Amino acid sequence: MKILVVCGHGLGSSFMVEMNAQEALKNINASSDIKVEHSDVMSASPDMADLFICGRDLEENTKNLGDVIVLDNILDKEELQQKLKDKLSELNIL
Amino acid sequence: MKPILDFIVDVLSQPAILVALIAFIGLIMQKKSATDITSGTIKTILGFLVLSAGANVVTQSLEPFGKIFQHAFGVQGVVPNNEAIISIALEQYGTTAALIMVFGMIVNIIIARITNLKYIFLTGHHTFYMAAFLAILLSVGNITGTLTVIVGAIILGLIMAILPALAHPTMKQITGNNQVALGHFGTISYWAAGEVGKLFKGKSKSTEEINFPKGLSFLRESTISISLTMTLLYFVAALFAGPTYVHSEISNGQNFIVFSLIQGVTFAAGVFIILTGVRLILAEIVPAFKGISEKLVPNTKPALDCPIVFPYAQNAVLIGFFVSFIVGVIGMFILFLFGGVVILPGVVAHFFLGATAGVFGNARGGIKGAVAGSALNGLLITFLPLLFLPFLGDLGGAATTFSDTDFLVVGIVFGNIAKFLGLIGIIILILVVAVLAIILQKRTNEKEAKE
Predict the structure, then answer these.
(1) Closest partner residue to A56 among B220, B223, B311, by Cβ?
(2) What local confidence, expressed as pLDDT, does residue B366 receive?
(3) How far apart are CA A84 and CA A77, in angstroms?
(4) How far apart are CA B327 and CA B264, in angstroms?
(5) Nearest to A20 by CA among A77, A74, A58
(6) What pairing do the DSSP bridges indicate for beta strands B301-304 and B341-343?
(7) Residue B450's Cα: distance from chain center in Å?
(8) What is the Cα–Cα distance from A75 to B174, expressed in whole angstroms?
(9) What are the structural domains, with CATH classification, of chain A?
(10) Quick check: B362 and B206 in contact, CB under 8 A?
(11) Confidence at residue B212, expressed as pLDDT on a 0 to 100 scale
């Protein structure tokens, strides 16, 4: 499984969230097969990953990507971990 | 012995291999698996080569633009864009830049460890750009050889710790907590926007209390907004230069409208490639830096990229972008009247810096604060490049330059000092800035403790 974190420029904030997501996945004992990467929102397409993560400000731009986790606060590690846990359970991966 | 020495020099003078080596060491220190180490190291080399490929695409689009603009208006037109200037600069300054980046990160950790400036600057691409920037600035200022790396790394590490501290009082108001700091080299604009915003304190309601159209969110995708503005700039320049000139001298007979569209989007394509390269280069280095700093200096605040403040005031983001951009366009017309060099609006900087300045202004002074703060940013990033171009040496003639405030301010201050006072001046300036920052931080901390 692959998770792609996206932001406007694909350099800074998506990278931070990627590192947080990796930490969160470890905390919830998710499979180590789950890869997390980051990119700019424009080049993201539905086939690039199984799950996408973005901040609330990019909700409009990620509507067509499929499964998207939208973060209210992109710095909040707990929110990220909770939403990842819920989503992965929903997808029967956890 | 000599062949071995030559080999080592060859290795170290190839920035791609040098940075890969740093990534390799970082991966080993994090005890990664052999496959992770191999793929991580190769990705870093790949990133550097992708980046230089992007540089060719950007130059290919900028060179004809420079000519057309010169022919049309009789003045030099400069589009400030960090990615474009960096990719061109790295051909000459790649090795020095890579070394300044790594040692600058180490200086940042040392400063966070021993002083009260407890900030770790995690916005890797800006660290990288600033390292390249300092490599150019110091070399042009005749501080050469090993000294470039030493002085460059100290300046880099220092501003990595000081600038987040400067932005932090307003940052706390925006986020409502004391957990994260802002790490983005537009800080002087943000700080200024916060100070200007204070003038409207309590006199203006927050930007978030108004309804604002949502349909413009596609402009958040930076490659799209670069394509749009560059095509427009190309088209206007080609129109004024006259289709005959473009057809006979530049486009080889291709219709000037088609040519403008293709070249404008080519520039965006180049930036797009460069961004991919930068992403690959930093993919291993930033997590290593983060991991090491967390171990060596606990209780620091991570300083993160500017879009982290966008969700806190989404209307201020759009207001800030538009106000800054419009001021940039007005500034461009004013520069036309004076002749000389014309700074064209670089859309990426107006977006990220304008938006963040808007958020900072709003936090202090509501709508009026957001408008005033982002207008001030528009002024700074339009007029400061003029003062700064002479310090870029040969690169000053390129049709692009650095776009963000802190590069411009550091460039103008250190460039002038290096020119008139030399190395001694630079050392004194570093010490004064460091001591001043530590004293101010101490005062802030005491004030906080009282509250």
Answers:
(1) B311
(2) 92
(3) 10
(4) 22
(5) A77
(6) unpaired
(7) 36
(8) 13
(9) 2-90 (3.40.50.2300)
(10) yes
(11) 67
Q: Of B105-109, B381-385, B393-397, which gets the smallest average pLDDT?
A: B393-397
Nearest Cα of chain A lies from the Cα of B24 at a distance, in angstroms, of 19
Residue B295 falls in which region: left (phi positive, over 0), alpha (psi -120 to 50) or beta: alpha
Residues contacting residue B425 through CB under 8 Å, at least 6 positions apart: B417, B418
Mutate to test the interface with A, among B221, B306, B319 (most CBs of A within 10 A): B221
ipTM, two decimals: 0.76
From the CA of B311, how many Å to the nearest CA of chain A? 6
CA B52/CA B184 separation, integer angstroms: 24
Residues 6+ apart with CB under 8 A from A63: none
**Best interface-test mutation with A: which of B172, B175, B220, B404 has the largest number of A CBs within 10 A?**
B220
φ, ψ of residue B73 in degrees (nearest 5): -120, -5
Distance CA B303, CA B310 (A): 15
**And the tokens for B114?**
């021993």
Total domain count, chain B: 1
- Cβ contact A83:A67 at 8 Å: no
Alpha carbon A36 to its chain's center:
8
Number of H-type helices and E-type strands within chain B: 13, 6
| Amino acid letter, residue B16 | A
DSSP state of B61: H
Would an 8 Å CB–CB cutoff place A48 in contact with chain B? no
Number of helices followed by number of strands (H, E) in chain A? 2, 4
Distances (CA, A) of B47 to A35, A73, A84, B39: 19, 30, 30, 12
CA B60 vs CA A30, B82, B252, B275: distances in Å = 46, 17, 15, 17
Residue type, B388: F
Instruction: Tell me the C-alpha distance between B255 and B107, whole Å.
Output: 53
Closest CA to A68 of A82, A86, A87, A81: A87
Length of chain A: 94
pLDDT along chain A (94 residues), means of 10: 89 87 92 89 90 88 90 87 93 82
Task: Name the pTM for this structure.
Answer: 0.86
Residue-number span of the structural domain to which B353 is assigned = 2-450
Task: Count the residues in chain B.
Answer: 451
Angle formed at CA B63 by CA B58 and CA B67, multiple of 5 degrees: 150
The answer to which of B127-131, B171-175, B181-185, B434-438 has the lowest mean pLDDT is: B171-175
Q: How far apart are CA B162 and CA B168, in angstroms?
A: 10
Residue B339 backbone zone (phi > 0: left; psi -120 to 50: alpha; other: beta) = left
B433 close to B159: Cβ distance less than 8 angstroms: no
